[in-house]
Amino acid sequence: MKREPHADALGELHAASQAQPNIALIKYWGKRDAALNLPVVGSISITLESLWTRTEVRFVPGQKQDRVSLNGRSDEAESKRVTACLDLLRQRAAVDYGADVASRNNFPTAAGLASSASGFAALVHAGTQALGLDLSEAEQSVLARRCSGSAARSIFGGYVEWAHGQRVDGTDSVARPLLAADAWPLRVAVAITSTAAKQVGSSEGMRRTAQTSPFQSAWIDTQEADLATARRAILARDFEALALISEHSCLKMHALAMAAQPGLLYWNGATIECMHRVRALRQQGLPVFFTVDAGPQLKAVCEPSAIERVKAALKDVPGVLDVLDTGLGAGARSISASTLEA
């Protein structure tokens, strides 16, 4: 279905949207279909509040090519991914207009902070609005997943579960909200230990792991139990249970990747020291746990009362460049031009 597109006086169709990155507590690592970005296991995440991607999409009648800028720069590889994503929307809307896309992040890009998740969730949402496509959040989640797997989760806010699905066409591999952000308002301290792009991207890392890691089958076989444990903990607001299963999933994912050939080492020395600091704080009775995605940045999830002590402890770790503080946030949404420029 279609509704009225967002057209200006020149006939260009445009909209702007914002989405936040999400951090997986029960990890997604591995694909059963790379072309459709279908995961081999399900996952559970939290959507962050203070980190964001803001994206403007403008479809221009008569324009043949897409023009893409990320943080004011053009990147050929990223532009190809954006065009592939826009092609899915253009097919739905039965248009062939080229688009101007301007996107920016307020956090490091391609460095283990889920910039692809927020970026493609914002792109799908803005493109949907610009073209006047009447798509539900679930339908947007499926399209976002096609563009970047974990972007399926950033369509939603708060606590989110992404099903791996069973269908060959992937239509049942969709994210859904588990719990609203304000229903259990945890906080996250993000220890930035590097701003460089990671040497091995997630897609290549997953492919290598699936082909060479001896732990791949165990990873798949134990995931449903981990998901069930985390789901119960979230719905019961059981912090201790969520802490134990989240750290377990994180370390299991990295052990899986480290056992690939050649092994994938996404951590640096500061990452490991931050893990020790978080565990020491928890032994002292502070409600906090860590998780780390495919990158060197550590995320310490805690109760709001603990955030200042957690931040101070992480800032004290040699090699930590900065510590970001964020709550849990909303899903992808439309924004005004003034917000886009802020």
TrEMBL record:
<protein>
    <recommendedName>
        <fullName>diphosphomevalonate decarboxylase</fullName>
        <ecNumber>4.1.1.33</ecNumber>
    </recommendedName>
</protein>
<dbReference type="InterPro" id="IPR020568">
    <property type="entry name" value="Ribosomal_Su5_D2-typ_SF"/>
</dbReference>
<feature type="domain" description="Mvd1 C-terminal">
    <location>
        <begin position="189"/>
        <end position="316"/>
    </location>
</feature>
<dbReference type="InterPro" id="IPR005935">
    <property type="entry name" value="Mev_decarb"/>
</dbReference>
<dbReference type="Pfam" id="PF18376">
    <property type="entry name" value="MDD_C"/>
</dbReference>
<keyword id="KW-0547">Nucleotide-binding</keyword>
<keyword id="KW-0443">Lipid metabolism</keyword>
<keyword id="KW-0067">ATP-binding</keyword>
<dbReference type="GO" id="GO:0004163">
    <property type="term" value="F:diphosphomevalonate decarboxylase activity"/>
</dbReference>
<dbReference type="Pfam" id="PF22700">
    <property type="entry name" value="MVD-like_N"/>
</dbReference>
<dbReference type="InterPro" id="IPR014721">
    <property type="entry name" value="Ribsml_uS5_D2-typ_fold_subgr"/>
</dbReference>
<dbReference type="InterPro" id="IPR029765">
    <property type="entry name" value="Mev_diP_decarb"/>
</dbReference>
<dbReference type="InterPro" id="IPR036554">
    <property type="entry name" value="GHMP_kinase_C_sf"/>
</dbReference>
<feature type="domain" description="Diphosphomevalonate decarboxylase-like N-terminal">
    <location>
        <begin position="19"/>
        <end position="175"/>
    </location>
</feature>
<dbReference type="InterPro" id="IPR053859">
    <property type="entry name" value="MVD-like_N"/>
</dbReference>
<keyword id="KW-0456">Lyase</keyword>
<comment type="similarity">
    <text>Belongs to the diphosphomevalonate decarboxylase family.</text>
</comment>
<keyword id="KW-0444">Lipid biosynthesis</keyword>
<dbReference type="InterPro" id="IPR041431">
    <property type="entry name" value="Mvd1_C"/>
</dbReference>
